[in-house]
Amino acid sequence: MLKENFKDFFETLKKLGEVHAPVRRGRLFSFTKVDSPGEVALNYNRTMLPPKKYFVKPFEEVLKIKVGKGYELIVEEPKSLVLLGLHACDINALRVLDSVYLDEPQDDYYQVRRAAAIVIGVSCEPDEYCFCKSMGTDYAWTGFDLFLHELGTSYLVRVGSSRGESIIESMSNIIGEPTKEDFIKLRDLELKRSRMFKKILNTSLLPDIVDSLHESEVWVVFSDKCVSCGSCNLVCPTCRCYDVTEKVELNLQEGVRVRRWDSCFIRSHALVAGGLNFRPTRLDRFRHRYNCKSSIDPRTNLPFCVGCGRCSAFCPAGIDHVNVLNAIWGLA
Amino acid sequence: MSSAYLPKLAKIVEVTEMTAIEKLFKLQFVNEEDAKSFTFKPGQFVEVNVPGVGESPISICKSPTRPGPLELLIRRIGRVTNAIHKLKPGDVVGIRGPFGNGFPMEKMKGYDVLLIAGGLGIAPLMSVLQYVIDRREDYGEVTLLYGVRSYQEALFRDMAIDLIKHPEKACLRTFLSYERDDPVFVSLMRDHPENVRKGVVTVLFECADPYIKPDKVCAVVCGPPIMYRFVLKELAKRNIPPNNIYITLERRMKCGIGKCGHCIVGGATAIRYICKDGPVFTYSDVLSVRGLV
Asked: Is residue A295 within 8 angstroms of chain B, CB to CB?
């Protein structure tokens, strides 16, 4: 697909649902509703909040409570959504979220939104924080409908689902057959891309190394710098912990259950009634996150960390995920 | 819409004060259909909701072999459980579940069953105890080691005393340990020195040892977190295979179905959800998953 056809491509997508794509916001990028193709910043490095915000809302009412009378789930009507411009890391992160939230019993709220979302990926170039190549998540082979590979003046469109196939079937006027030259170009660009990564993390045996060096001084050094703000959790595309609270109206007849993103850096995360805390110190909580992120999802065989670099880029204390683990490897 | 997130209404039909801080609640589902569709295994738990206050994960304190209302033994310890304690018969709560894997009662068939409970740990083990008593022919010898702090704080104290005085009634051997003296337990110890000891629950191993056949027994343990390390050490010392030692664990839980993430434990090689992969784990799991106990 020639780049000049992107406008028409975009207009067709708009007919399929509300299009959300990365948009420049000052120095940062954000997934936002877009109305015109000009707003879309397909050559972005990373958004601050990952696409999970569309499926697990930062804050939402989930249950209506009629005191003593019953309960009612608050599941919204599915709204067609086109998520345009996801990087491979974020697509793989969605697969990790799927494996958790769609595992039986399914999360009703997530399932409804996920089923109504069309995912269109876009190729990218790594910056100083990206380490998806190390995690093996620099390539999305499933979990999307279409994937646009930028080849200079055109995009090579890779199809990832039957839904994606039917979308481009309706676009034969703007999407032509790829040529042999396109494939050569794709090959060369991918090779170039894979040589651009500056952040390297040795991931072979990583879970075992992290686990066996649980008592390493390195954790202490870095957790002393950590301010427990939980920013890494919020920007992480696979962090999925949520908290649940309830409130009642003044009439004491109706109430609502709400859930919101939680953070394992907050002291109450593992606190139980009676005051016992299973992760009482910041060091415990710091290591817990690295344990969680360094492990492998048994259902997808994907790592729970997809190497997007957000936690490092947005850490107010300047803690870099890869630097911490490299220090565990003895490479710092 | 049937959903694991949708609580079902249940009416409190009976409240029994067990100690100063613990009450036994009997609950009946308001809708006939909910009552019919609610089936559970020993060791599973439910999320109990007091509207506007929140939910709390509570073990089912009853065996599925027994008909009648759902029974929950609840200690008044936090925000939600304090609210539950204020409720009276006729009041209505929300119930989600049952959740968790429960004890593998099928796998334990043919084995002796060694139950080790500390304090409130008797609540989830009551489901196992009743189950093996009701299906007595499926299991070998049944032994209960029960550790309490004092007579006043002892749950099911009448049952425990009765079992020690009349072991033939339920065909099981009962051993009781207590930490603080009082006339009832002191005289019980005098009359049954082979069954009652002063100290923490591990002092009972000495009394029970003649009846523990390592290759024939399944151990089932529940108690305060601190208890596991000591009890597991004793069990391991007796060469009971790690796969035949079962423990049930507590953590902060919001969802009960492996989504909300609070109960995740483990190192990078293996993370587990206590609510979904547990709350029942084997000693093998303890050896391979970091931070389980």
From this structure: yes
**What are B's interface residues with A at a Cβ cutoff of 8 A?**
1, 3-7, 9, 49, 51-56, 77-81, 91-92, 94, 225, 250-252, 254-255, 257-262, 264-271, 290-291
Q: Is the pLDDT of residue B1 over 60?
A: no
| CB–CB contact B51 A272 (8 Å) | no
Q: Rounded to whole angstroms, how far apart are CA atoms B67 and A168?
A: 59
**A332: confidence class by pLDDT, cuts 50, 70, 90:** low
Same domain for B119 and B63, yes or no, is no
Tell me if A214 and B259 make a contact (CB, 8 A cut-off): no
Beta carbon pairs, A and B, within 8 Å: 128
Q: Cβ–Cβ of B51/A270 closer than 8 Å? A: no
DSSP sequence for B7-71: -EEEEEEEEEE-SSSEEEEEEEESSHHHHHH----TT-EEEEEETTTEEEEEEB-S-TTS-SSEE
Residue from B284, B282, B256 nearest B274 by CA:
B256
Do the Cβ atoms of B8 and B95 come closer than 8 Å?
A: yes
Task: Kindly state the average pLDDT of the residues B1-8.
Answer: 85
Which residues share a beta bridge with B27?
B12, B70
Interchain proximity B268–A211, CB inside 8 Å: yes
> Could you give the percent of chain A with pLDDT greater than 90?
94
Cross-strand bridge partners of residue A33: A20
Q: How many domains would you assign to chain B? A: 3
The predicted-structure confidence for A272-289, as pLDDT tens digits, reads as follows 999 999 999 999 999 999
Same domain as B242, residue B254: no
> Are B244 and B202 within 8 A, CB to CB?
no
What does the mean pLDDT of chain A come to?
95
Q: Is the dihedral of CA B233, B235, B237, B242 positive or negative?
A: negative
A-chain CB neighbours of B56 within 8 Å are 273
Residues B264 and B216 in one domain: no
Q: pLDDT, tens digit, for every residue of B266-282?
A: 999 999 999 999 999 99
Q: Tell me if chain B has a CB within 8 Å of the CB of A262.
A: yes
Other CB atoms within a 10 A radius of the CB of residue A107 amount to: 27
Taking an 8 Å cut-off on Cβ atoms, the answer to whether B260 and A270 are in contact is no
- Give the C-alpha separation, A259 to B205, whole Å: 46
* Residue B1 located in a structural domain: no
Residue B176 in any domain: the answer is yes
> Which among B92, B251, B267 is the nearest to A278, CB-wise?
B251
